[in-house]
Design goal:
This protein is of the alpha+beta class. The chain has three helices and three strands. Strands 1-2-3 form a three-stranded antiparallel sheet.
Length: 130
Amino acid sequence: MSDQHTYSSTMLSNEEREMVRDLILLPYIDTMVGKSISEIERSGNLLGQAYLQAGRYVQRRIMADIYKLKQELKRRNIKVVDDANEDFLLYYMIYFRGYQERFGMTRDVMRTQISLRLTAYTAEIGNALK
């Protein structure tokens, strides 16, 4: 996300595609973490407070990441809009620098990416506890 990056006017860079993908996935991750927090609050689990703190930490990181992504995409003149949802595919329209592109993700790819992202957030918590 450096300022020296020159943007190709007709194509999204791989970095920009990853940013779009993350912007799409992070709200799903936030919803999943929110559901887990609700379950923990109801469970009476002995380690419930520790899990709640971890869950809230992850939610704060997700919100910070969404904010940063939105700011950077806006700076690059890239807008992402819901398009169509089919059984196994979710589509989004990406409007960028006077162009547009349809972006699709399968639910399987989304699940994999969500798992990888949650693993990274969890690793941050583990590193903080060391």
